[in-house]
Design brief:
This protein is mainly α. The chain has one domain. It has 4 helices and no strands. The two termini are about 10 Å apart.
Length: about 100
């Protein structure tokens, strides 16, 4: 169950990172509210996952999920670069997340 909670924390990490783009410098109310709520939920879920998972692993996995999802959504929603080197680097992040999961009981 802690891994499920950690994945949810990572999804909330994606939510607040992408949400920042829509806040327009926190000048738009509802995107700002959604972004701040997503930040809070992400931290709370990370805290819950840390009851069972090592700190370094949990933080790295949550952040890695956030980086991965944010990079992909940046490409899809904001027409950011999709060159092979960028995709390869994203693949390395995925490999790191999988490696941390495999090596943590």
């Amino acid at each position: 169950m802690p891994w499920v909670i950690l994945i949810l924390a990572g999804l909330c990490e994606i939510g607040w990172a992408v949400g920042l783009k829509y806040t327009d410098g926190f000048t738009r109310l509802w995107p700002s509210v959604g972004t701040v709520l997503s930040m809070i939920v992400s931290i709370v879920l990370l805290g819950l996952a840390l009851k069972s998972l090592p700190l370094g692993t949990a933080y790295a996995v949550r952040t890695g999920i956030g980086i991965l999802g944010t990079a992909i959504l940046g490409m899809v929603l904001f027409s950011e670069s999709v060159d092979p080197i960028r995709l390869g680097c994203i693949g390395l992040i995925v490999a790191g997340i999988v490696g941390l999961k495999v090596t943590t009981a």
